[in-house]
C-alpha cells in the first residue's frame, strides 16, 4: 500500500544546482507548488534559467508538451530576500539545500523550525553531516530535547539526499536521525517516490505517464553515519592519488564502467563540497582513508572549485 506524503506545498531553501534540481523534480514529477528561496537573487535567477533550459529541452525532445512544461514552471514561485526564510512558514515540507556547512544549517533550522506547521517535515539535502545534530538544532533555546514539544519538533527532521544532476540521477538517500519518527520517514520516502525517485512499475499501459517513464529508481534508507552510504563509498576514490588524473579517471571509466572518472566527478560536485564532506567523514570516523589529501586542500585554498568556477582537476570554459 502506498503511503500519502501529504505535501501540498514544498519549500526549497537554496537555489544552487541541488536546490534547483529538487524544485524542478518536485514541480514536474510530484506536481506540488514549490516556494524557492535563496539569500542571493543572482543564484535564484541562475536556477530559474537552468529550469527553463531543462524544460525546453524536454519539450524539444518530445518528452513533455508545452503545456506540461508551463504548468511545471508555473508551480515554482520565488520567495524574495525581503520575506526571507520566514516566507516558507506555511509549507508542508522544507528541503534545505544550502552549502555543506554545519553551522549554516544549524542556524537555518534553529531560526524557523518551531514556526512551521506542527506536521511539517524538515528535510536536509546534506551529503554527509549528521542529521541527528541538525535535528537537535531545530529546537528553540527555550525548548528541551526531552520535552514533548522538543521531541515532536526533532522527530520531523530527516535526511533526503538527492544526487546531481537531480533530474537525471536515480537515487535518493533517505537518512533517519536518532530523533526521526517513522511517520516522517514514510512521508519523506513517499515524496521521493512521487518525485520519480521511487520504484516504477513496468506497466506497459503507463508509457505515456511521466511518473512511470521517468527514471526508475531505488530509495535507500541509511543510518546516520558520517557520509551515509554514498559518500563513505565515493570519497576514497576521490582522495586516492595513485596515478595521473587521466589514468585514475580512465581506469574507473573503462575498467569499472563509471560514467565519469572520480576526479572529473569531484570537479562536477565541487572541490569545496568534496573537501567539506571529507572533513566531516574524517572528523566523524578518524579513519585515515577519509583524511583529505593535501592536494585537495590546497586546490580549495587556491579557489579551484571545479566546474562551477572553471578550474579544478581539469579546466572548463
Ligand atoms: N541538470 C540536468 N540534466 C543534466 C545536467 C544538469 N546539470 N547535465 C546533464 N544533464 C542531462 C542532459 O541534459 C542529458 O539529458 P537527455 O539525455 O535527456 O538529453 C543527460 O543528462 C546526458 O547528458 P550529456 O549527454 O550532456 O552528457 P553525459 O552523457 O556525459 O551525461 C551526466 C552527463 C548525466 C552528468 C553523466 O556524466 C553522469 O551520470 N555522471 C555521473 C554523475 C554522478 O555521479 N552524480 C552524483 C554526484 S555525487 C552527488 O551528487 C552527491 C554528493 O553527495 C556529492
TrEMBL record:
One matching Pfam family: 3HCDH_N
Stretches assigned to coiled coil: none
GO terms for MF: NAD+ binding; oxidoreductase activity, acting on the CH-OH group of donors, NAD or NADP as acceptor
Annotated metabolic or biological route of this protein: Lipid metabolism; fatty acid beta-oxidation
Domain 3-hydroxyacyl-CoA dehydrogenase NAD binding: 10-197
Domain called 3-hydroxyacyl-CoA dehydrogenase C-terminal: residue spans: 227-316
Binding site for NAD(+): 14-19, 38, 100, 105, 127, 164, 308
Sites annotated Important for catalytic activity: 161
Highest taxon of source: Eukaryota
GO biological process: fatty acid metabolic process
Record's keyword annotation contains Oxidoreductase: yes
Gene3D superfamilies: N-(1-d-carboxylethyl)-l-norvaline Dehydrogenase, domain 2 (1.10.1040.10), NAD(P)-binding Rossmann-like Domain (3.40.50.720)
Keywords: NAD, Oxidoreductase
Keyword NAD: yes
Family affiliation: Belongs to the 3-hydroxyacyl-CoA dehydrogenase family.
Descriptive protein name: 3-hydroxybutyryl-CoA dehydrogenase
Organism: Agrocybe chaxingu
Amino acid at each position: 500500500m502506498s503511503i500519502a506524503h501529504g505535501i501540498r506545498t514544498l519549500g526549497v531553501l537554496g537555489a544552487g544546482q541541488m536546490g534547483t534540481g529538487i524544485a524542478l523534480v518536485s514541480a514536474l514529477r510530484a506536481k506540488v507548488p514549490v516556494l524557492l528561496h535563496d539569500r542571493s537573487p543572482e543564484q535564484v535567477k541562475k536556477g530559474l534559467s537552468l529550469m527553463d533550459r531543462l524544460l525546453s529541452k524536454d519539450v524539444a525532445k518530445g518528452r513533455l508538451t508545452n503545456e506540461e512544461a508551463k504548468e511545471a514552471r508555473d508551480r515554482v514561485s520565488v520567495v524574495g530576500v525581503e520575506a526571507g526564510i520566514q516566507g516558507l512558514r506555511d509549507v508542508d515540507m522544507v528541503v534545505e539545500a544550502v552549502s555543506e556547512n554545519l553551522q549554516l544549517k544549524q542556524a537555518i533550522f534553529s531560526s524557523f523550525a518551531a514556526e512551521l506547521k506542527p506536521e511539517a517535515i524538515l528535510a536536509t539535502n546534506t551529503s554527509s553531516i549528521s542529521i541527528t545534530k541538525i535535528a537537535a538544532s531545530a529546537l528553540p533555546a527555550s525548548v528541551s530535547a526531552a520535552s514533548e514539544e522538543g521531541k515532536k519538533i526533532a522527530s520531523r527532521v530527516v535526511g533526503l539526499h538527492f544526487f546531481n544532476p537531480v533530474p537525471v540521477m536515480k537515487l535518493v538517500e533517505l537518512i533517519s536521525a536518532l530523533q526521526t519518527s517513522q511517520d516522517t520517514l514514510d512521508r519523506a520516502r513517499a515524496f521521493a517516490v512521487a518525485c520519480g525517485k521511487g520504484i516504477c512499475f513496468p506497466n506497459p499501459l503507463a508509457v505515456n505517464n511521466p511518473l512511470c517513464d521517468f527514471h526508475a529508481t531505488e530509495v535507500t534508507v541509511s543510518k546516520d553515519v558520517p557520509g551515509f552510504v554514498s559518500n563513505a563509498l565515493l570519497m576514497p576514490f576521490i582522495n586516492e592519488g595513485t596515478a595521473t588524473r587521466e589514468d585514475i579517471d580512465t581506469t574507473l571509466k573503462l575498467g569499472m564502467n563509471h560514467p565519469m572518472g572520480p576526479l572529473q566527478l569531484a570537479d562536477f560536485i565541487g572541490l569545496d563540497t568534496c573537501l567539506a564532506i571529507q572533513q566531516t567523514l574524517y572528523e566523524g570516523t578518524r579513519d585515515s582513508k577519509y583524511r583529505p589529501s593535501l592536494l585537495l586542500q590546497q586546490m580549495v585554498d587556491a579557489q579551484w572549485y571545479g566546474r562551477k568556477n572553471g578550474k579544478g582537476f581539469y579546466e572548463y570554459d
